[in-house]
Write a structure and sequence with these properties.
- Helix 2 links the parallel strand 2 and strand 3.
- The protein starts with 5 loop residues before the first strand and ends in a 7-residue tail after the last helix.
- The strands form two sheets. The chain has a five-stranded mixed beta sheet. It has a three-stranded parallel beta sheet with strand order 1-2-3, with helices on one face.
- By secondary structure, the chain is an alpha/beta fold.
- The structure holds zinc ion (2 copies).
- The site of one zinc ion (ZN) has 5 residues, from loops.
Length: 282
């Protein structure tokens, strides 16, 4: 049995998870989960199948997605919930994010080719497993190809900021993602802040439109949970939670394993209601 009947952070084959959306929902049902959100990277393609499977089980599905936004030199994962998945602006933005990631990877591979290193795009895509394509996947391909020994060496010699195959990324700003999600009637939450290690920046992000933080997560221990509850209260942020289940890639994580309390749902629903007064609630 799972620790919670709520899991708002799940990945399927619509991005880098091992199982199709309907399988993820069936597994959630077996674990006693009653409310869930599929949060695939830059993709909402799995939502209809998840909803169809959840309906027969009486499970509530919140629309969800996990976006990557750029903050100076690092990537921040942003969860979005409760938006209208047919919203044109949101759908267009997600397509654009995916395309620009592929475009960048293609440019990096072209530069590597100029340096005498041939790596196929298909190999990088296979390593990324449908996840948000990035330099770490190219680094892995360089290692597999025997061009470098370590991840560090891949960045040092080829992919890092001043290295010859470096290509700057078309940055998605926090404000941009927040606005797109809001316009689609949803809310945003900072994903797994415990793995990001930049707690001192959360207050600033809240001022810039972030709605919540992921307090409960498979990688958060009791001390993390207490700390993020306090940070959420201080900054008037919603509290969300989920396992970040990926299937085979996260063997130590099970659906519903994060101890998400039912009390987090009412404030989230309240925020969603105020955000889209006209549209009917799911
Ligand atoms: Zn993430
Ligand atoms: Zn995730």
């Amino acid at each position: 049995m799972a620790a919670s009947s709520i899991d708002l952070h799940l990945h399927s084959t619509a991005s880098d998870g091992s199982y199709p959306p309907e399988t993820v929902v069936a597994m959630a049902e077996r674990n006693g989960v009653r409310v869930l959100a599929l949060t695939d990277h830059d993709s909402i393609d799995g939502i209809p199948a998840a909803e169809a499977r959840a309906k027969s089980a009486g499970i509530r599905v919140l629309s969800g997605v996990e976006l990557s936004v750029s903050e100076s030199e690092f990537d921040v994962h942003l969860l979005a919930y409760g938006f209208d998945p047919t919203d044109k602006g949101l759908v267009a933005a997600l397509n654009q994010y995916r395309n620009s990631r592929h475009e960048r990877a293609r440019k990096i591979l072209a530069r590597l080719k100029g340096l005498g290193i041939r790596i196929a795009m298909e190999d990088v895509e296979e390593i990324a497993h449908g996840g948000a394509l990035g330099r770490p996947h190219v680094a892995e391909a360089l290692m597999r190809g025997g061009h470098v020994e370590t991840f560090h060496e891949a960045f040092q010699r080829y992919l890092g900021h001043h290295a010859p195959a470096y290509v700057p990324k078309a940055a998605v700003k926090l404000e941009e993602a927040v606005t797109i999600v809001r316009d689609a009637g949803g809310v945003t939450a900072l994903a797994h802040p415990g793995t990001l290690n930049r707690d001192h920046l959360i207050a600033g992000w809240a001022r810039r439109g972030l709605d919540g933080i992921e307090v409960w997560h498979s990688k958060h221990g009791p001390a993390d949970i207490a700390r993020y509850q306090e940070i959420a209260r201080r900054n008037n942020l919603l509290m969300t939670g989920g396992s970040d289940y990926h299937g085979e890639r996260t063997p130590d994580v099970s659906i519903g394993c994060a101890p998400v309390p039912e009390s987090m749902l009412a404030p989230l629903d309240e925020a969603l209601r105020s955000r889209r007064p006209i549209r009917s609630q799911r």
